[in-house]
Design the sequence.
């Protein structure tokens, strides 16, 4: 018997879509019905290539908060990305994978003092702030930090808005730069965030112009303003490619106008959902159903209960304002539709994924898959009621795998892990497959990563 476990990387001899991969997994493992993510690592690579070609002057620093999956971090680190970390835990996770401190920006404007101290201990110098109290706190804890002043933006067209919580207006920002000069703190640049899932380019253009104004003022005061952080908010769902292209074109034009490429400025961004949203497809199983008859019309309405919900992978419904769309396999996708609601498996009435949607009639045991489930899903999931949420199974074609497999080989740990962890060894498994179905690729990979291949 050969083993597939959660965290497996499956190498396919030909290119698979997420739907094809899910179908293959279901066919091979008929008795395994727990929810799982099909994670297309090739999609992440393609997103990185597109970023570099679309905005060549902007170095991406992946927003770990969006999806802190270790294999995503490993892959992006190998591809050359930096990282936006918002806490001690995120900094530690990234650095434990061998990422150097100079590739990290501590991009949380309001930080716990002990976390600032930790950043100092591990050498993370660059961090954001947006108010005088934070400036004075950093002065006391980490006087040699390199500061980036975050300004407010117009994020009214974003999925998730941040300017109500973070960012200084320009008038306040000028005063903060003056205060930093007064207390001898080093301000090296300006940052902004146009909101998560931003769908217009104007917010970026206006913010870049405001950043130029503030950085010019900082230079007059004697600061070496050499860093511009244009934040996150870049769309990453399937079907948003044109929006991203529009934003990239507008950003490039604004940068050329306000920050000519003279070698004196480093430009970074903090994309999160851009990289991972479309690469994760969630597969769920119908575990129960209920038929309801409308008293007025006599028509049947159906309630389906699946094995993942808003406390698990679908927490994006509550926290990210996401409206997930179910997809069915061909055998289930008939022309006859019924009014349907889809519910998670917990005992909470809040655990509703779709309140009303038109779907064909389904049976217990049928599979439903959900696209664009990589952003703000597993990073905030919990096992409420003791119920599991989707675990990732990664896949990539052999052609791509040969170019990036070194990313997943064991790397030396530079920092001691303080908390104990249970290590999954080769005898632990979630799935079993006969030898002739799924032969191993013998490679020297990290203890928690299994690599297999399928036809």
Sequence:
């Amino acid at each position: 018997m050969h083993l597939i476990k959660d965290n497996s990387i499956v190498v396919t001899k030909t290119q698979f879509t997420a739907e094809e991969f899910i179908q293959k997994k279901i066919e091979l493992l008929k008795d395994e019905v727990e929810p799982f993510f099909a994670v297309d690592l090739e999609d992440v690579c393609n997103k990185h290539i597109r970023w570099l070609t679309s905005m060549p002057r902007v170095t991406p620093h992946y927003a770990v908060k969006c999806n802190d999956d270790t294999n995503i971090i490993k892959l992006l680190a190998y591809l050359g990305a930096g990282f936006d970390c918002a806490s001690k835990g995120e900094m530690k996770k990234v650095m434990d994978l061998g990422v150097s401190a100079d590739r990290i920006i501590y991009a949380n404007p309001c930080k716990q003092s002990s976390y600032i101290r930790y950043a100092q201990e591990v050498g993370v110098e660059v961090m954001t702030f947006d108010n005088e109290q934070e400036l004075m706190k950093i002065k006391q804890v980490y006087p040699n930090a390199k500061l980036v002043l975050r300004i407010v933006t117009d994020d009214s067209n974003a999925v998730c808005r941040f300017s109500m919580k973070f960012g200084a207006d320009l008038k306040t920002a000028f005063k903060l730069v003056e205060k930093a000069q007064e207390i001898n703190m080093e301000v090296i640049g300006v940052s902004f965030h146009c909101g998560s899932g931003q769908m217009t380019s104007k917010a970026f253009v206006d913010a870049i112009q405001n950043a130029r104004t503030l950085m010019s003022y900082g230079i007059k005061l004697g600061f070496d303003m050499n860093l511009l952080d244009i934040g996150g908010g870049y769309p990453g769902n399937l079907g948003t490619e044109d929006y991203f292209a529009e934003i990239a074109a507008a950003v490039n034009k604004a940068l050329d106008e306000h920050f000519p490429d003279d070698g004196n400025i480093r430009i970074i961004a903090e994309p999160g959902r851009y990289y991972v949203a479309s690469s994760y497809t969630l597969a769920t199983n119908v575990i129960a159903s209920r038929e309801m008859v409308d008293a007025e019309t006599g028509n049947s309405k159906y309630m389906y209960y699946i094995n993942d919900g808003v406390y698990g992978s679908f927490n994006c419904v509550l926290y990210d304002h996401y409206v997930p769309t179910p997809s069915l396999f061909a055998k289930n996708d008939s022309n006859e539709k019924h009014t349907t609601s889809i519910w998670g498996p917990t005992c909470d009435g809040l655990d509703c994924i779709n309140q009303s949607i038109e779907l064909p009639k389904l049976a217990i045991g049928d599979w439903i898959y959900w696209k664009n489930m990589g952003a703000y899903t597993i990073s905030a999931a919990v096992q409420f009621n003791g119920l599991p949420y989707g675990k990732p199974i990664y896949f990539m074609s052999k052609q791509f795998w040969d170019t990036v497999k070194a990313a997943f080989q064991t790397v030396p740990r530079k920092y001691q892990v303080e908390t104990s962890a249970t290590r999954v060894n080769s005898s632990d498994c979630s799935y079993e497959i006969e030898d002739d179905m799924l032969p191993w690729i013998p490679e020297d990979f990290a203890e928690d990563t299994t690599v297999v291949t399928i036809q």
In short: Residues 1-18+25-31+390-455 form one domain.
